[in-house]
Specification:
5 helices; binds zinc ion; 3-stranded antiparallel beta sheet; globular
């Protein structure tokens, strides 16, 4: 069993209270990624100050989405960068039977995030010339690596690559950068 202190967030990423988070246990969630489909165990921490939980997802999993970063990345690149049709993009994402609404949902969310994402990733690499914000963000993600970008956006800023759905918005704190701590 992995030591709960090893990856314990410090401080709480949601309220930045200095009290140590409790590690009451795990929950299971399903994850579909390229070459993997099944259940993963996720450690959950509880902040005694703000009473919110912090889940320690593996870095290829996106909060609240069942599909892993690499599946969504392959779909969005095929659909929005290469201009492939929904069916072909689903195939590129190794999900040939997925409902087309799911892909449309990813596209819609990504479009809504693209401009802010491109601007944020400019901290990591020189913005690439592109026809529009969506293409630019995708090129930058491809260049930096999606998992690296997700880790950078999420671990420090609690920003979701595809944006937070409205019902989770309070957990996605879009603004303040906590002072740089150890990685
Ligand atoms: Zn807290």
């Amino acid at each position: 069993m992995v030591d709960p202190d090893r990856y314990r967030p410090d401080p709480c990423p949601q309220c930045e209270a200095k009290r140590p988070l409790r590690a009451p246990g795990f929950y299971c969630r399903t994850l579909v990624d390229v070459g993997f489909e099944g259940s993963i165990r996720v450690r959950r921490y509880l902040c005694r100050s703000c009473r919110r939980t912090v889940s320690l997802l593996p870095e290829f999993a996106l909060p609240y989405l069942r599909f892993g970063v690499s599946v969504i990345a392959a779909f969005l690149v095929a659909r929005l960068l290469e201009g492939r049709r929904l069916v072909a993009a689903a195939l590129a994402a190794t999900q040939p039977h997925m409902p087309y609404q799911r892909g449309q949902f990813w596209v819609r969310r990504f479009r809504g995030q693209a401009e802010a994402l491109g601007a944020a990733l400019a901290a990591k690499l020189t913005p690439l010339p592109a026809a529009n914000f969506v293409a630019r963000a995708l090129l930058m993600l491809q260049s930096l690596g999606w998992v690296t970008a997700h880790r950078f956006r999420f671990s420090q800023l609690r920003v979701h690559l595809l944006g937070w759905p409205r019902f989770l918005a309070p957990h996605g704190r879009p603004a303040t950068l906590p002072s740089a701590g150890p990685p």
